[in-house]
């Protein structure tokens, strides 16, 4: 069974600085997809970024980028120029079929 | 564009009472539908998913059941709620493998 691990329960970053959230996963598949979701205090689940495993190029969405290391099964999220609105729970997720497998989440705090 | 509606937003129920949470999707046909539960400060646990009308797969044994009476309607039910059923319930839809799931706004369920 696939597992997704987020080893940092909490992280904090100073406003305008950069932070990296870690995610590792375990799978025997070669074709799969990875996602980062943001869950602010409102508890909505918001897609942040998506990565296809067959693509070597790391996905980027504005201030959000990933470092995808397929051999190491690592999928970290980098947030540049952190803003107060980035404070939220962040979930890494894995998909190889009909279902998503989520990590336990990282709570990101942003200090003004 | 596709939208997902989930209600009610908040529900307080006594132990032993029945439950019905409803989720509907608009703007797409034959979506995959999902029910998740999230304990406070924790990750998402998949409860049920459905790939078509009347087709329900259960991921964990529990006091809850799900039904899909129409293509874009997904219902989470219980005949008798337990204290342990308290939590935040999220409905989601997805279509093609590898595409992200899209979430409703969630239902906060408190059992007294």
Could you explain how this protein is built, in words?
The complex is a heterodimer of chains A (112) and B (112). Chain A has strands at 3-5, 10-14, 19-21, 24-26, 33-39, 46-52, 60-61, 64-69, 74-79, 88-95, 100-102, 106-111. Chain A is mainly β and 112 residues long. Chain A is globular, with a radius of gyration of 13 Å. Chain A is 0% helix and 53% strand. Chain B is mostly beta strands and 112 residues long. Chain B is 0% helix and 57% strand. Chain B has strands at residues 3-7, 10-13, 19-26, 32-38, 44-52, 55-58, 65-70, 73-78, 87-94, 102-103, 107-111. In chain B, strands 2, 4, 5, 6, 9, 10 and 11 form a seven-stranded mixed sheet that branches. In chain B, strands 1-3-8-7 form a four-stranded antiparallel sheet, with no helix packed on it. Chain A binds chain B through residues 33, 35, 42-45, 47, 50, 52, 89, 91, 95-100, 102-105, 107, and chain B through 32, 34, 38, 41-44, 46, 49, 51, 88, 90, 92, 94, 97-98, 100-103, 105-106, 108.
Q: Which sequence of SSEs, written as H and E, runs from N to C of chain B? A: EEEEEEEEEEE
Distance between the termini of chain A: 41 Å
* Overall shape of chain A: globular
| Number of beta strands of chain B | 11
**How confident is the prediction overall: mean pLDDT of chain A?**
94
Helical segment count of chain B: 0
Low-confidence stretches of chain A: none
Distance between the termini of chain B: 39 Å
Most extensive interface, residues per chain? Answer: A-B, 22 and 23 residues
- The residue ranges of chain B in which pLDDT falls below 50 over 5 or more consecutive positions are none
Strand residue percentage of chain A: over 45%
Oligomer: heterodimer
Percent strand of chain B: over 45%
Structural class of chain B: mainly beta
